[in-house]
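Here's what a typical entry looks like (Mannosyltransferase):
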Amino acid sequence: MPAPPPSPLPPNRKSLTLLLSSLPFFITFTHIFLSPYTKVEESFTLHAVHDVLAYGFGKDGLKNWDHITFPGAVPRSFLPPILLGLITYPFSALFVALGVIKTKIGVQILIRLILASFFSLSFNHLAASLQIVYGTPSRIWFTLLSLGSFHIPYYAGRTLPNFTALPGVLWSISQVIRSESSHTAKEGQTQLRNAIITLTALATIVRLELALFVLPVALSLVVLQRATIGQVFQWGLIGGFGSLAVTSPIDYTLWLPALSHPDFPFNSPSQLLWPELSSLIYNALEGHSEEWGIMPFHYYFTNSIPKLLVGNSALVGLAGGLWAFARVGGQKLVRQVGCWDQSLAGRDVGRILTVWGLSISSVLVGLSALGHKEWRFILPILPILHIISALSASNLWSLPPPSSYLRPLARLAVLGLLAVNLLATGVMTFLSVNNYPGGDVWQALETAGVAEGEKIWFPSYPLQTGATLFTFTHDHAAGQGLGFWPALPAAEEPRWVYDKSEGVDLSSLQWKDGVDFVVTGDWAGLTEDGWEMVAEVGGLEGVGKAPGQYKVEARWGRKLVILKRY
């Protein structure tokens, strides 16, 4: 018999659901407005979206795309930025026509808001799945502990490949969890199929290290008899080869003009058919990623995870430790200390780890074997760890007998850990918001007296710290790449020429005659060699101990200057 329809929620439950559902949007949007600029790691996707909106896909437009002149470190698939650009276009065109967006900076913010909206929708889907399967307290604590942390909410609207994939990862995790309480076996199989296909497609075209996440969970589903090996194999083939069938022609066509660029890391057209695999071979197998630094094997365990979880580390450690201890013969002691196995949340931790524990281990151990490590590489396991911390907090908040006498202390501890998260988030947000001097250059240039047609050169540092094609507000991009209605506002007057060429020697007569303004963080000696300072951009130098006991202070200083040739 089909399951009965859900009963209407009482008004107080509706209000709670509305509040919890609004929080991801509010918090991620707040981060974007506080910190609207980007770092160089976000530039490929961001600039590709810019080119979709500005030039479109016509033959004459494609030759103007930024990646042909500046291909970046390694190629990535164009499908995510193309989709993001197509979704952005109607909103951008409308807001430009209405005068809501007046500069290209507004379009950059809009792109990030749209990406954050996809994150928020998938986050709410996962939170709702937790509520369905594990109860309302799990949703409350998952929302508070996840959004009270810094990294995911701050980066949710940033166009790093890891975070363009994150909405799909969250939705896939949600599908696997929701399949536990499906009304029919067929519905559960459909949810598992959608999850494996989506994760495999994301691994294939966006971040190949996701294979370390999806393969173990597929194996776990087979071992738990929730799917057959034939099913997961078929789903993987659909996700992998299906996504390649779509992306390979696109990536080959768009990357081929860049193949002759001297800085392009590949030399064979065949490497363009699957950019993610070619980049993995280039970075991991050929060792080029180690040029960006080598970290010890334990880096993720001793640095990244404590930094990412902050107060949640204690909750994850408690839940995971008690569950593991119970599995190796400590059941009696675990029951005496908190009745963990007897509590619903305690059993739920076991259900999560049974499905996802192998994925967590695979990601951590597999990526620890590589020399170069970054916290965002292990991003897929972070939502799982937040789920475990939420179930742990739920258990501590409602300790059952005979440990209920500890409940006030346990609740105080949970609130204290949440407060630690919020404090750390406040500090890291302050430090991060004031760390984009390149993004503020466009405003400083307005006061520098740049005339019509004059050329401004941007070396590496301002481009790494916030200057993007969207901050080039006086350039000539038409913004009508996708239709009659422009997606970008008209360029500011007067029109300027922006130059991102590398290897420029400002001391040479050639460049003295070819460049009128320079934006640089390395101005020593240039003011004595034909250049005068006309504007500057300040920023955060660091945080250190201030005079007096237990006092710290932020140190501010000049980060960039704008020089004019005379």
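The longest helix spans residues 104-134.

More examples are in the samples folder.
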